[in-house]
Design a protein that fits this description.
The protein is α/β, with parallel strands linked by helices. The protein is built from 14 helices and twelve strands. The chain is 44% helix and 14% strand.
Length: 406
């Protein structure tokens, strides 16, 4: 028998594993590690959402199987959000489905619409499920630039002209994880027009729609006229309402794609626990002060991190959205690559970050820093990083590093 199953052989080693192992070893040795690696919101879920969960779980009828498509009230609530936020009308019956977080929805839709050997266009760097959902489904992935500009549009044109077979789907993700790029509605119009001309499906990941800090309020691709003919969009409760562990997300848009995902999920799950869906409905329909508070919190943390890194001599662009800074590796460490630099930062500064190569080979010159600690801890991390950058000469002692992190 082969050592590995076919689909597993298509997955590379998990590049975050080395840093995670080093982090676990350091913590086991009672070292104080400040973890800015995983985009895991640290704020509690707003009390009114938790209260609705508690209320719903008291009803024994909610303990039975739920619906993999999502309870009707939840789908109506998501449609209401799209109408308020984007002026987009959705049919809750045919254009909305609840998912177990956006990640599950993306992976299952990839499985539903992909034939072995299909060509899928995915920004590089991007969130791993964007490419590996399709790779697991048997597709081939062609990378395109992650920037929402003419460079991406030119790459899409080249991909259509030179890919065999012709691309069948495109992933877009703005505000982007990990790069924090934002797209304008005009850019979405260009993307939709291009994909309509070439019969390419669009899967838009809008998980960070409500985390923005400047004048550009992230639009939905579904705002573009005709977008629903070819596009579906994934959203999530995880970041907007600090509900990451609840695993509640949505897909909305093209009825054919929604039907395909609905059919796929009907074989795989019975949906999220009904009280979670009831609480998510309350979140979407209830007071939205908590969303602004979340946005203000991430803005404050962003400002602390960016100002602190720049004062330490590490030039990092100021993100206008998402909960991440996409930080170029300081020039004198560039030869290390993102994994070794992340391990060095962990060993010397006691700060964990995500190596950029985990988001694609074009991310190897960066690390991703998440705004997931309070400002006191962030300032401690910045003091540690400043001390590391001031005393380290960029040539780590290999025996020491191996001894520390093996």
């Amino acid at each position: 028998m082969p050592d590995e199953f076919h689909r597993i052989r298509r997955l590379p080693p998990y590049v975050f594993a080395e840093v995670n192992a080093a982090k676990a070893k350091a913590r086991a040795a009672a070292e104080d590690i400040i973890d800015l690696g995983m985009g895991n919101p640290d704020s509690p879920t707003p009390p009114h959402i938790v209260a609705k969960l508690v209320e719903a779980v008291q009803d024994p009828r909610t303990h039975r199987y739920s619906s993999s498509k999502g309870i009707p009230g939840l789908r109506r609530a998501l449609a209401g959000y799209y109408e308020r936020r984007f002026d987009v009308k959705l049919d809750p019956e045919t254009e909305v489905i609840a998912t177990l977080g956006s990640k599950e929805g993306l992976a299952n839709l990839a499985a539903a619409i992909t034939s072995p050997g299909d060509t899928i266009l995915v920004p590089n760097p991007s969130y791993p499920i964007h490419q590996f959902g399709f790779i697991i489904a048997g597709a081939s992935v062609r990378s395109v630039p992650a920037t929402p500009d003419d460079e991406m549009l030119r790459a899409l044109d080249r991909a259509v002209r030179h890919s065999v077979p012709k691309p069948t789907a495109l992933i877009v993700n703005f505000p982007s994880n990990p790069t924090a790029y934002l797209a304008t509605l005009d850019f979405y119009k260009e993307i939709v027009a291009f994909c309509r001309r070439h019969d390419i499906w669009i899967l838009s990941d809008l998980a960070y729609a409500e985390i923005y800090f400047g004048d550009l309020v992230p639009p939905s691709i579904l705002q573009v006229e005709g977008a629903k003919d070819i596009a579906v969009e994934f959203t999530s409760m995880s970041k907007t309402y600090s509900m990451p562990g609840w695993r509640m997300g949505f897909a909305a848009g093209n009825p054919r794609l929604i039907t395909a995902l609905t059919r796929m999920k009907s074989y795989l799950d019975y949906g999220a626990f009904t009280p979670i869906q009831v609480a998510a409905t309350a979140a979407l329909n209830g007071p939205q002060d908590c969303v602004q508070e979340m946005r203000d919190l991430y803005r404050e943390r962003r400002d602390v991190i960016i100002k602190g890194l720049q004062s330490a001599g590490w030039e990092v662009p100021t993100p206008e959205g998402s909960m991440f800074a996409w930080a170029p590796i300081p020039p004198r460490y560039a030869h290390l690559g993102s994994v070794e630099f992340s391990k060095l930062l962990l060993a010397r500064a006691k700060v964990a970050v995500a190596p950029g190569i985990g988001f694609g080979e074009h991310g190897d010159g960066h690390v991703r820093i998440a705004f997931v600690e309070n400002t006191q801890r962030l300032r401690q991390a910045l003091r540690n990083i400043r001390g590391f950058l001031q005393v380290d000469n960029g040539s780590p002692a290999e025996p020491t590093l191996q001894g520390d992190l093996a």
